[in-house]
Design brief:
Largest sheet: 6 strands, parallel
Structural class: alpha/beta
Number of domains: 2
Low-confidence stretches: none
Radius of gyration: 22 Å
CATH architecture of the largest domain: 3-Layer(aba) Sandwich
Helix content: 40-55%
Length: 423
């Protein structure tokens, strides 16, 4: 069968699709991927062919972050308007180019798989070719009462529904332009509603246990939103042996990582981590990822680049990170306490869930200081957090099972729709 995958964003957004694509390729299927230009190398290193589409994901992420930050200075109207236009222009470029690229690739496909950012163009192209559409959601993006637990259930669900409709007018301009080019009628509602109405498969690529009650709330969907667990590849890296040797040479360290967005003050952040861990008598393992921390001469601190989280986290006392879905899944699967210091919107949701599950706590990176870091680490290093984290790990799906389950769902869905179209 032929599968076409379209994912836009940084590694945390793209890796779930790549993980499933690798499994589909291993099973002998034809797999095509569409990703932003700065993710092509990553996808190809994982063994999949990739076509670039849209602007670099980093450019859009920086523009979006600047816009959100700009709202705090709302009195600077001209700056806010400029930031809004820059953000919209990059998003529109992504949507237009993804639509055109998918139209050229999806002819004859048995299924089109996409992430949230590409849902509109993917849904339109799937409708144009009359092929099945599947989506991967890395946290609960459809209307539900679990994502914002501080709100009463009906109010939380209604707020998300209203949000879908409020965001539709702007998305409609782009969507209708694409639909005209494809010869499709104008859309009559937000894309989430159209996707659900068409009977598409909406794979929930995160742990059901992280959102208690959500599966029951969506049970009426009759299997349309199955949970498979987080989709990660856990690929080995050149640094794994060196990291394992350093960990074994002393007491279990605390891991620190900040994901795909560089921190603004690497030297200050490194100094803060070093001082906090020295005060607590702990060692620190820092995953630099996209942040250049330079070199450190502190004996109790080690800075590494790309690493295999699954291999290292189980040997750590605790994990401190930005709250990306893949890193969160790795820390929970490892059964160690977590401190989430988010810098981005959806990361705050994972911080709230870790706190709700009582396996860790959360504090915005912008308000984290040496004093708060010491206090927060003391809290999560308490025996109760470690005990609850170990217990939760026993209820997590391992990565191989998650990938297998997602690939099975896609194969079965594509086969069932093929039979339906030929009947």
């Amino acid at each position: 069968m032929k599968f076409v995958l379209a994912f836009y964003g940084t590694r945390g957004d793209v890796e779930p699709g790549v993980a499933v694509g690798r499994e589909l390729l291993r099973r002998g299927h034809e797999v095509h991927t569409v990703v932003p230009p700065d993710m092509v190398g990553f996808v190809e290193s994982a063994g999949l062919a990739a076509v670039a589409s849209g602007p670099d994901s980093r450019a859009w992420q920086v523009a979006h972050r600047d816009l959100l930050t700009g709202f705090a200075r709302f009195w600077k109207i001209r700056d806010l308007i400029r930031l809004g236009r820059e953000d919209w222009d990059l998003f529109a470029q992504c949507s237009r180019e993804t639509s055109a690229t998918l139209k050229s690739l999806a002819d004859g496909a048995d299924l089109l798989l996409t992430g949230v950012i590409c849902e509109e163009p993917a849904a339109n192209v799937a409708e144009y070719y009359d092929i099945p559409l599947a989506t991967l959601h890395i946290f609960p993006v459809r209307a539900n009462s679990q994502l914002v637990p501080i709100l009463p259930a009906p109010l939380g669900r209604s707020a998300m529904t209203v949000s879908e409709w409020l965001g539709w007018p702007m998305a409609k301009r782009l969507g209708d332009a694409q639909r005209r080019e494809l010869g499709l009628p104008k859309a009559t509602g937000p894309v989430p509603r159209r996707i659900a109405k068409r009977g598409s498969l909406e794979i929930q690529a995160y742990e059901e246990v992280c959102f208690p009650g959500l599966a029951a709330e969506w049970a009426k969907r009759d299997g349309q939103r199955p949970f498979v667990g987080a989709l990660t590849m856990e690929l080995p890296t050149d640094a794994d042996d060196e990291i394992a040797s350093w960990i074994a040479a002393g007491t279990p360290p605390i891991f620190f990582g900040f994901g795909s967005m560089p921190v603004e003050s690497p030297a200050d952040t490194l100094a803060m981590i070093g001082a906090a861990c020295a005060e607590l008598g702990e060692r620190a393992l820092i995953g630099s990822a996209e942040t250049d921390f330079g070199h450190t001469h502190l004996d109790h601190v080690k800075v590494v680049g790309t690493m295999n989280y699954a291999a290292a986290f189980a040997a750590c006392r605790a994990v401190v990170h930005h709250g990306g879905v893949g890193t969160t899944a790795a820390s929970l699967r490892a059964g160690v306490p977590t401190l989430i210091i988010p810098t981005w919107g959806d990361q705050r949701f994972w911080g709230a869930q870790v706190k709700r599950l009582k396996v860790g706590i959360a504090r915005p990176f912008s308000t984290t200081t040496q004093e708060t870091l010491v206090a927060d680490l003391r809290s999560i290093l308490a025996p109760d957090y470690a005990k609850r984290a170990r217990e939760l790990a026993t209820r997590m799906t391992n990565s191989a099972e998650s990938v297998t389950a997602a690939a099975d769902l896609m194969e079965n869905f594509a086969c069932s729709r093929r039979v339906g179209r030929s009947a």
